[in-house]
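ugh ok fine here u go
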Amino acid sequence: MSEPAFDLVAVGGGPAGRHGALEAASLGARVLVVERERSVGGECVHRGTIPSKTLRETAAHLAGLARRSGGVIDPEVPADLRLQSLVSRLDAVLTGHERQLDGELEAAGVAVWTGSAGFLDEHRLAVVASDGMRRTVRAERVLIATGSRPRVPAGIPVDHEHVLDSDSILSLLYLPRSLLVLGGGVIACEFASVFAALGVEVTIVDRGERALGFLDPELVEHFLAHLASLGGRYLPSRRVAAVAPGVGRVDVRLEDGDTLRAEKVLCALGRRANLRGLNLAAAGLEPTERGHVPVDEHLRTAVPHVYAAGDVVGPPALASCSEDQGRRAARHALGAPLAARASRTPIGIYTLPEMSSVGLDETEALRTRGACLVGRAPFAELARGRINALDNGVLKLVTDVAGRRLLGAQVVGEGACELIHVAQMALLAELDVDVFVEQTFNFPTLAEAYRVAARDVIAQRADLRAAG
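structure:
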């Protein structure tokens, strides 16, 4: 029997691989996706984004119920509540989402094989299914999109019972009384805020000087203030010396001599690229010292017809960025012009409160342009913000020093990851900031923050003219 051949084979069906496959199919290519799981979606669907965000929604609604009722209704989470009861909708959410993803690939004519893929040479791969059946395929182009798994540093005894990682934490039977989170990145902060909102005593231990160092510091300050209001603690510039699980507790000794104790520990100290079994050497490739697949600005590896996208190429390891990388890699591989610039891809962090950014933030604008104007709209000053009892949240618009050209936007607060798309479209259309004042928004909505922030910029613009 002849060996099947495809124009592009995407190894991995997560955000990068799936969107790369769909983009290639839209360009008329014959496309195959190889996915280890029973359905496409990758870690994002099965163990990462969907499960954690389902839990987050429960926590957010419980916290919001007390706030919006003015304290009349204050639901208390029982100490012995089973964690799985908080994500009782998860199976239905996962099943529906998997069906949608599979349907999109089928409608686009993309073939899907279930199994683990490994290179035989630059153009051929072997795919082994869970039952041991082995098939080979020839690929004119390959997109490596195998995702990542939790990183376990030396000296951190992750046993998935006392010391957990981001995969196993959602397998807890009960909510712990206390949780110590190691790390200050996206996963660490998301889980810390969710568990704090559920009444768990949370402490974040971060070896960095500040959490989420790639985000606008003002957004992070709002997040940490909210965490503190929930009883959580953030300890920056602290390194772990030893982790010792005991009976009903875990002791964490820090390098400065302090010892912290919690019922459970979450190790969220980064992720490692999934390269096991891929046999990169057979394709003439080798990973970097940090275990990532090296690529150029087009997501192309040292082998011209082999591309990589998503978590396997390193940070920021966010679903939206992975989707964009997958599309860009597929288009470049097939010789098609790029449809959109990566700088217009938004970043969404699903902490409580949410944080999101697109384009340049204030720090980047000052560094690259020397000066800028920043308009702010606190949610507490909006009619919808008052209705929703939102005392923590702000939308920022960053413009050039003349106060006209929009350079970027940042939002922290309820619905931030939805609101950011208004700024994304404005950036793509290269609209001036005045457009947010000239157009009408529904009332009352949080989107009115764009009008308030734009008026702030325009007022600063007028002050500069008057001064000079």
